[in-house]
Every structure is written in structure tokens, then in C-alpha cells.
Amino acid sequence: MSPETFVDIFRSALWLVTVLVSAVILPSLAIGLVVAVFQAATSINEQTLSFLPRLLVTLGALAVGAHWGFDMLMDFFYEMIYQIPQVVG
């Protein structure tokens, strides 16, 4: 296997992980920001108030995006299986 092939495979895997994690983290980050602004405006310093909305949005993002994420993972897996003869040979 040439170093260029390994770098391309590693780059593809790293990009896939970045996209899949971002799809879950970004909605949670947005809701966390909204709750933090609300807490700052109302002077409520309750830790559980920020935890529950982020948890629910994260679970919702996982539920909505699970099919899309698994499709991306399966496409990547099939691509890796397809590239086995090129990498070995």
C-alpha cells in the first residue's frame, strides 16, 4: 500500500467522523447557547436547566439523523471493501 492511498483512506474516515459528530453536536451547541442566554437574562443559575434541553435535542438529532448516518457509514464500508484489491495488489 502506498502512503498516498493510506492518507486518502485516513482522510475519508476522518471526514466521515467529523460530519457524523457535527450532526449531533451542533444542534446541542445551539440549544446550549439559547439556554445560556436565557439563564443570563433571568439570573437563573440552575445546572439542570441547561442539561435537559441539550439532552433532548441530542437524542432528537440522533433519532432524526440515524438513518442518514448509517447510510454514510455503509457507503464508506462498501467503498473500503471495493478498494481492497487496489490496496493489496
From TrEMBL:
Designated name of the protein: Flagellar biosynthetic protein FliQ
Organism annotation: Oceanisphaera sediminis
Protein family: Belongs to the FliQ/MopD/SpaQ family.
Database matches in Pfam families: Bac_export_3
Transmembrane portions of the chain: 12-39, 51-70
Principal location listed in the UniProt entry: membrane
Recorded topology in the membrane: Multi-pass membrane protein
Free-text function comment from the UniProt entry: Role in flagellar biosynthesis.
Keywords on record: Bacterial flagellum, Cell membrane, Cell projection, Cilium, Flagellum, Membrane, Transmembrane, Transmembrane helix
Keyword Transmembrane helix in record: yes
Cell compartment(s), UniProt: Cell membrane; Bacterial flagellum basal body
Source species, domain of life: Bacteria
